[in-house]
Amino acid sequence: MKINELPIKVRYQETDMMGVVYHANYLVWFEMGRTSLIEDLGFKYHEIEKKGVVSPVVDASVSFKQPVRYGDDVYVKTWVEDYDGLRITYGYQVYHADGKVAVEGETKHVIVKKESFRPVSIRRSFPEWHEAYVHAMEEQ
């Protein structure tokens, strides 16, 4: 499968009073990784939105393994975990420079019309995007 790796330098404002990254910031990092993966697949999310669709999160999960602290260098690894032509599940790992996994998670999305939020079949409406997701899951 195709995997995107995005470096993150932890900023002070991303931490809480305990000196560790505030839990909600991992979802922001997941979004950064997802956007970067979409670009690796040859698409720009803002260009996709110009076609009248958006991709809301319908489910998210985050599992915390070890803390990430201010000043740490970490990486967000992102891939397409599952795709059925309508729904997409992205997988994520945030890991330290030494390879130790800090956080794992996934987000599930559907593509919907921007005005009505009615689901759109990627397979039918965006065949190039569909093929890119299929190939991203197969790539070794």
* CATH topology-level name: Thiol Ester Dehydrase, Chain A
What class would the helix/strand composition place it in? alpha+beta
Question: What would you call the shape?
Answer: elongated
- CATH second-level architecture: Roll
Kindly provide the radius of gyration, computed on alpha-carbon positions and rounded to a whole number of angstroms: 16 Å
Please name the fourth-level CATH homologous superfamily.
Hotdog Thioesterase
Kindly provide the name of the CATH class: Alpha Beta
Strand content: 35-45%
Organism: Halobacillus campisalis
Pfam families: 4HBT_2
Keywords: Hydrolase
Protein name: Acyl-CoA thioesterase
Descriptive labels:
140 residues; alpha+beta; Thiol Ester Dehydrase, Chain A; five-stranded antiparallel beta sheet; two-stranded antiparallel ribbon; 4 helices; YbgC/YbaW
Word description of this protein:
With about 140 residues, this protein is of the alpha+beta class. It has a single domain (about 5-140), classed as Thiol Ester Dehydrase, Chain A (Roll). The protein has four helices and seven strands; from the N terminus they run βααββββββαα. It has helices at about 25-40, 45-50, 120-125, 125-140; strands spanning about 5-10, 55, 55-65, 75-85, 85-95, 100-110, 110-115. A five-stranded antiparallel sheet has the order 1-4-5-6-3. A two-stranded antiparallel sheet has the order 2-7. Strand 5 and strand 6 form a beta hairpin. The longest helix is centred in the N-terminal third of the chain and has 16 residues, at about 25-40. The chain is elongated, with a radius of gyration of 16 Å. The chain starts with a strand and ends with a helix. About 20% of the residues are buried. The mean pLDDT is about 95. Its EC number is 3.1.2.-. Belongs to the 4-hydroxybenzoyl-CoA thioesterase family. InterPro entries: 4-hydroxybenzoyl-CoA_TE (IPR050563), HotDog_dom_sf (IPR029069), YbgC/YbaW (IPR006684). It is an enzyme of class 3 (hydrolase). This is Acyl-CoA thioesterase.
